[in-house]
Amino acid sequence: MVEGKYSETIQAEGHLIDSQHLNHIFDKVIERGAVYEVLRFDIGKTNDDVSFIQLKLTANSPEILRELLKELVPFGAQLVDQRDARFEAAVKDRCVPHDFYSTTNHRTQIRKGGRWIEVEHQRMDAVVVDEGERVVCRKLRDVARGDQVMCGVEGVRVVPEYRERDRHGFAFMSNDISSERRVEVSVAKVAKMMHEVRAAGGKIAFVAGPVVIHTGGIDYFCDLVRKGWVDVLLTGNALPVHDIEYALYGTSLGVDLQTGSPVEEGHKNHMRAINVISHAGSIAEAVKQGVLKQGIMHDCVKHDVSFVLAGSIRDDGPLPDTLMDLIEAQEAYARALEGCKMVVMLSTMLHSIGVGNMLPSWVRVVCVDINPAVVTKLADRGSAQTLGVVTDVGLFLHQLASKLEPCARK
Amino acid sequence: MVEGKYSETIQAEGHLIDSQHLNHIFDKVIERGAVYEVLRFDIGKTNDDVSFIQLKLTANSPEILRELLKELVPFGAQLVDQRDARFEAAVKDRCVPHDFYSTTNHRTQIRKGGRWIEVEHQRMDAVVVDEGERVVCRKLRDVARGDQVMCGVEGVRVVPEYRERDRHGFAFMSNDISSERRVEVSVAKVAKMMHEVRAAGGKIAFVAGPVVIHTGGIDYFCDLVRKGWVDVLLTGNALPVHDIEYALYGTSLGVDLQTGSPVEEGHKNHMRAINVISHAGSIAEAVKQGVLKQGIMHDCVKHDVSFVLAGSIRDDGPLPDTLMDLIEAQEAYARALEGCKMVVMLSTMLHSIGVGNMLPSWVRVVCVDINPAVVTKLADRGSAQTLGVVTDVGLFLHQLASKLEPCARK
Amino acid sequence: MVEGKYSETIQAEGHLIDSQHLNHIFDKVIERGAVYEVLRFDIGKTNDDVSFIQLKLTANSPEILRELLKELVPFGAQLVDQRDARFEAAVKDRCVPHDFYSTTNHRTQIRKGGRWIEVEHQRMDAVVVDEGERVVCRKLRDVARGDQVMCGVEGVRVVPEYRERDRHGFAFMSNDISSERRVEVSVAKVAKMMHEVRAAGGKIAFVAGPVVIHTGGIDYFCDLVRKGWVDVLLTGNALPVHDIEYALYGTSLGVDLQTGSPVEEGHKNHMRAINVISHAGSIAEAVKQGVLKQGIMHDCVKHDVSFVLAGSIRDDGPLPDTLMDLIEAQEAYARALEGCKMVVMLSTMLHSIGVGNMLPSWVRVVCVDINPAVVTKLADRGSAQTLGVVTDVGLFLHQLASKLEPCARK
Amino acid sequence: MVEGKYSETIQAEGHLIDSQHLNHIFDKVIERGAVYEVLRFDIGKTNDDVSFIQLKLTANSPEILRELLKELVPFGAQLVDQRDARFEAAVKDRCVPHDFYSTTNHRTQIRKGGRWIEVEHQRMDAVVVDEGERVVCRKLRDVARGDQVMCGVEGVRVVPEYRERDRHGFAFMSNDISSERRVEVSVAKVAKMMHEVRAAGGKIAFVAGPVVIHTGGIDYFCDLVRKGWVDVLLTGNALPVHDIEYALYGTSLGVDLQTGSPVEEGHKNHMRAINVISHAGSIAEAVKQGVLKQGIMHDCVKHDVSFVLAGSIRDDGPLPDTLMDLIEAQEAYARALEGCKMVVMLSTMLHSIGVGNMLPSWVRVVCVDINPAVVTKLADRGSAQTLGVVTDVGLFLHQLASKLEPCARK
Fold it and tell me: How far away is chain B from the Cα of A399, in angstroms, using its nearest Cα?
């Protein structure tokens, strides 16, 4: 059917079958209307052995072939005929050549002067800039005129994380999301993951939304903070507002405690809470002045957990700590995530996607939400190590806190 | 706009405002294109006082007026001009006069010979049959030729349950369903309700689906059984099959325990489980023979909890205990529900709706499901006392079992 | 880790990579704690070539090895060392030997006297019975004492449907379910599938729930019936009741048409509708007598579309046509499905799962529901050809009806 | 039970029963543990007459009574004993007295010098500032030291919108959200609402998310733009990126058109699209330069539809037009909404809540989403005129565009 005359030969190595990379490679070729011929395939003899494949790809236009090659890079494919990467100068700020290489979140190497160099600050949807000694990921908006930007697909290779079958005693579940699961099993996995990350010297970040408050998670989250399991809290304006509102008014007025219902539009305590913090100057000041005496934000301040509050278009107030300049907020998030080897996302799609975009694929991610569609969406975007848990967030935190002993913070 | 010449005067008494019955009455009048005039309205001076209203309704055809009157009966409205109820004979089996009165699930009284008599076996979507001494609800399919079937709206009055504002220390939540709630508060309410029902001599039924098994609820449900809180278990074929499969194969093969995943199509253990019970003859026999040694069904047998398994079109096997004749199954359900003053519905829309149809409105109902749409649907159909809880069923049972001490069974 | 001494060698052939069967085989081996060694692997050189694999499996108990082999059969694996299938007699009705072979919905062959014979009446969760000339699938409950039932995994091979990458110009989407899709693309695929099935002489069945009525699908479904695209309608009691209620009362009383809201508990027209059909004797009789003049059920009667109404525990009434004996209902469904090569499932999980259980995997299935969890659940159980569409059912039918011209019924 | 000694008398007038305001007032009193006594109640004799109530409230602390009075203001309650509003000076920027009055989105009047004055720029969660001639809503963050801020509940009255029963031929549905509805009925209502708004000289704003693109809504939305029905488009970064990506690459590469699937992580065309617009300088420049030739953003530029793109923490790029400073973005949204009398929200909870916070309650709002939980959440926050539609957004736009003729833009 295809009268292709344009060909390239690629190769890939790794756990090609269990990671489904081989399958994705074949799928992409067919989607593009190209054809492949397997030149060589060495299958791993056992579960621990890697496989190797060499494929000749043929398309009937050089553009299609080029697009196809770009699409195969994330699955570990590289040209057999190795060349150095090609860099071109950005002609103005924030603008790159049309043929720029857009990164994945996987470990990436660039060939320069015949040598393979690892790209630094790996994240997805960035460009790769040659800084002489180093090659680094840079966001499009941070590109300056004259930056040397990598173009094309020559001289790049990606080492995708393998969605492997429990090769290191760790079961991945991202294809296996359902509310009809035993949560206790997932909690045990998460607790184990947290221990492993800490043992390896990694930090643990939590990305959390106000549902943590509404579902009764305050005490359990505070317990995690006090036991030393939370290094970073990334959230928006709503969680701290509701947490502080609850700390200031929850027990005296008592409505929420008795009915279990957040009265969102009701008596405007959230505006009063913001006003109290504005008077104090900041959350930390309110704690220092003895105005704020309990709750998640209080405990974060007391236990030196760094937190970043990123604003959104829906925020009223906001708290004086909330960053309404998103460039600043994204950078503060990224800095806070440095050194984090695990991120637990609790019922906030917005901030979770924001964080997911910043992470290299080797950071472990856990997504918890009562809505299976949210968990699926986050797991789809994330790295191969994503563990999705569909359940009530308050009860999840209850279980998790009861499974974890106090530990030394990093 | 309406040139109505056909009028009737109705009245209603009760907590008309907080139950929203007055509102519903007005809505129905407007929907029908009729008009109302308030002849008299006495509002309750305090929260404990009842209100009284008298309304003149005018429509521009006698049919519309008649339909409208029928629609107002469930909200407690009755004709001011009191007449005896009218009965007509069924001309053949399963067939009633076109003008038959179709019941609600609320307490209903019929005027016969100038006296108001309470209808027995109250349930919804039934007809009312005059049996001389008694008037009773009868399902359409059970109507026999010659039965005296109540027609029209004369001589009937309904005493709806009030969705009242915590007049007896009991908070109703059916309009207030969300996954963003603190489950612990709901669990405490359910536990309190169970204590109250028991204290009043009522039985407690559970309607449960296989999600109880998949979410890890077996141990907690068994705990409730052993502590004496389960009088009746109404379910289908899937819960017992998965429970027995788990009891027989769960620990030895171990896959499920380690991964938390039900392997539905996998190794066909559910067919093996059915086969084992078929060999024994029944679930009770399997327990007696020592073949079935643990799990929900085992504990029900050991603790004399009566259970009814109603088949469905999706059932394979089924177990020898599963009733595939639905007439028989509905009657067995109805018999098992006699004396039950509370029903807890756990993640099975099908059986829950089936049970809901059979219950008078004064039986308390709790619906638990992780999908808010299911809880809303069940709460909408149910009685005013329905409490909806959106959460993980396994974790809910965990919490509930830990809140309840052993008690004496009825 | 595994000190395995028990080994068998298996082989499989087909589109092993794109169908993910190879991956599933490896997964199962690891899950069981066994090990594999690839003895031979020939990869298909191009997308049209099949692959072939030979694997040595080793486990540390004969039971684990046996269980593992059973689990690999559905992916096309068979023992290299070919033996005849083994049959044992059932010792009593409905009971089979513990080691029985439980079927998949894929094409299956049994080795008898050295010859491979195709199993008849293929369906899942059945046993295979030797009838001399033929080997057939039989439901557990239909097994009679003395029936020769296949046991073990020797002498069986399964030919799974391939979830292939558009090898025949047909894109499968079952792993790709989301509400964020362009429905028009899916509708075009479904219409194309319907044309292909008809061109090949196949019948088309629809499994539909009452949501078809509530979302305004009556006219469009009737259009499909009149254009000749519906051979069989499988449903429960609710769809015909609501359809008939609408046909009888929808336009005169008019509430629903104006508000778009089904008034489920409201004026009890559904009980009146059932009563009208009971008077007539059946739906067909009501059409004949001129009582029922429009709607889906009317059009089915007029255009000789066979329909089967299977009861459920939630059904009131029911209509005289509704089968309340589920054994009878399942058999009527199965008979109606004979010759159907395509099934369109519209918003009814219960009946759809029931139908899915009866179908061999080569029947094409389309699932339409506004709830992604339902589509995922159905697609997971179904055959490889399942196409899932997450959308509004009424609008889907609108689009589908407008895409299809009248055609000759089979 | 309550030993209350603190009392106030309030009154309210309006459609108190059908709007449920009376019910809400009673509920709040009971929730607070206070008691009420009805001093006077005049019920509207017909559906068009208003009702009037006077209530004596008694609580056992002055704080509870004060809180309760604040909570009753949104339902139209005011003190019988009329006093002027009390203003206090803000002691520093962004900080108000603790007893400040927090606004609702309803029409509000303030008593000053014995005269009732209408508050300007009505929106919720604001404070009321006395500017001498005028009293205005001001956001907390915009309060400057010395501003005269209204405190307490004296001298304020709110005129809530009535959730009335079709008094002006308009059926409200916000309590009546379900996917089991006939969408065509809802579309007809929306179209009618759009005609009415235009006839009254109002503008129409659309708040839209990228699901509009993914579900195939581009052509239909463009149709609405070209027909003159869209005055303002409020969105984020994702909709324009995907729209432009589709305009630039959708047809040539063609993958999406054939499969109906957005390949979000795939070939990075969204980064290419951003780069193209960055080269041009802005979306409008790209249209002018002939680089961008079709799609929603193109049509908005060509037809002078004003659009505002508000950034979020998840945005990559972003487009040069996207506002990453949220203070600026919120102000741009608010300016764009001036003169809008109707807002249609299409599948974006984030931006929809942001817009909802800015609107006075008399702006009509329509929310469309396939997820019922989103529609419920938006409807709950919104004004009484909110119409919720649970359906596929692409198909909704298809239906809506086909129902509307070209019209003159305001």
Answer: 9
